[in-house]
Amino acid sequence: MQRVRTHSVVMAGAALTAMALSLAACSSSSSTSGGGSSSSSLSGTLNASGSTFQLTFQQTAIQSFKSIQPNMTVNYGGGGSGKGRTDLASGVVQFAGSDSPIPSDETANFKGKTVLYFPVVIGPITMSYNLSGVTGLKLTAPVIADIFQAKITKWNDPAITALNPGLKLPSTPIVIARRSDSSGTTANFSQFLVEGAPGVWKLGSSSTISWPAASRGGNGNGGVAQIVKTTPGAIGYVDYSDAKASGLSYASVKNKAGNYVAPSISSATSAADNATVAPNLTFASVWTAGAQSYPVTYQSWDLVYQKQSSTNTTKMLKAYIGYLLGAGQKLLPQLNYAPLPASLDQKATAQLSKIGS
Q1: How far is CA 186 from CA 13, 43, 227, 231, in A?
Q2: Contact present, 217 and 80 (Cβ < 8 Å)
Q3: Longest dimension (CA), the chain
Q4: Hey, is 164 helix, strand or coil?
Q5: Rounded CA gap, 330 and 338, in Å?
Q6: Residue-wise pLDDT tens for the chain (357 aa)?
Q7: How many Cβ atoms are within 10 Å of 232's Cβ, its own excluded?
Q8: CB 129 within 8 A of CB 227
């Protein structure tokens, strides 16, 4: 159901397109474009797949990048983080979008090759819901855990009403909307529940979860957003960009500091600013410290093999990933994503030099 995301790109409007082209023009006039891409002409094709969280950003960035390197083609298909990692391990793509590091049970697929992690985008995972006339919903991690384990099954359950004394909640049955594909959004959402609701959440953290039988699965973030939008009583975990594009309502969530915080660009940035970054640039933005940090914030990387098959592929990867880390970051807020913290962006840009043939 990637059509939902594609539609959101089209509807971004002429103003965003003009901005993208303007950024591209500014970048192409300098000796480097976007922190690492050379102004010399490159020719060839890069193929990628994976994270649907990245999809709108990738489609918009590809359009803009074409003005800098008109003879380069970049193709980015969604399919979920799990598909991206599988495609990279199989050699059918040159980079993969993934919202989580390579799980231990997938490590062997990469046959000992070194994979570099380039963070490119930050964003909140919303608790989007469909309840007519209900706005300003507040939820906590333990309550969210019991909703998604089907232990809380009606919207007027005492556990929810206790958090929302000013709201008139209906007795509508809760419909769980979740991902059907292997998903980094699922991995990060479930990790939030592991950390925010210890002892309550029993389903673990992974790209795929054994959800309650009555839950409804959607392909990609757009698929889950569509289920929520068309199903009264539904609640689903949907990235902020898709939730905004679909006009969904979403809850404020109690964070580690004890504050109810709504998903936004600024609250996601606060969460990322408080994350601990490992030397390989992996980190987790869920359940971080900070009074204004949104607790279900996640991150997405582009995964690239350190050793490439050719000099031309190396140059193209450096050019495009460098663009995403440079001028591409300025596109993010208009697409309802959060840009990387400056210090992290600098580390990622410096790491481009490690890609080689």
Answers
A1: 30, 36, 16, 20
A2: no
A3: 63
A4: coil
A5: 10
A6: 333 333 333 334 434 444 444 444 444 433 334 444 445 899 999 999 999 999 999 999 999 999 999 999 999 999 999 999 999 999 999 999 999 999 999 999 999 999 999 999 999 999 999 999 999 999 999 999 999 999 999 999 999 999 999 999 999 999 999 999 999 999 999 999 999 999 999 999 999 999 999 999 999 999 999 999 999 999 999 999 999 999 999 999 999 999 999 999 999 999 999 999 999 999 999 999 999 999 999 999 999 999 999 999 999 999 999 999 999 999 999 999 999 999 999 999 999 999 997
A7: 12
A8: no
Q: Any bridge partners for residue 77, and if so which?
A: 49
Cα–Cα distance, 147 to 343 (Å, whole number): 37
Which tokens belong to 211?
């959800």
Cα distance between residue 208 and residue 81, in whole Å: 11
What whole-number distance in Å separates Cα of residue 292 and Cα of residue 259? 8
CB distance 122 to 337 below 8 Å: yes
> Tokens representing 132?
């007519």
Burial 23-42 (b: 16+ CB within 10 A, else e): bbeebbeeeebbbbbeeeeb
Strands (E), the chain: 32-33, 37-38, 44-50, 72-79, 95-98, 115-129, 138-139, 175-179, 216-218, 234-239, 249-250, 252-254, 260-261, 297-305
CB 176 within 8 A of CB 148: yes
**What is the Cα–Cα distance from 208 to 185, expressed in whole angstroms?**
10
Least Cα distance to 295 among 258, 241, 340 occurs for 258
Tokens of residue 181, six digits: 């594909």
Whole-model pTM over 0.85: yes
Distances (CA, A) of 53 to 27, 180, 250, 272, 319: 25, 15, 17, 16, 22
Phi and psi torsions of 352, nearest 5°: -55, -30
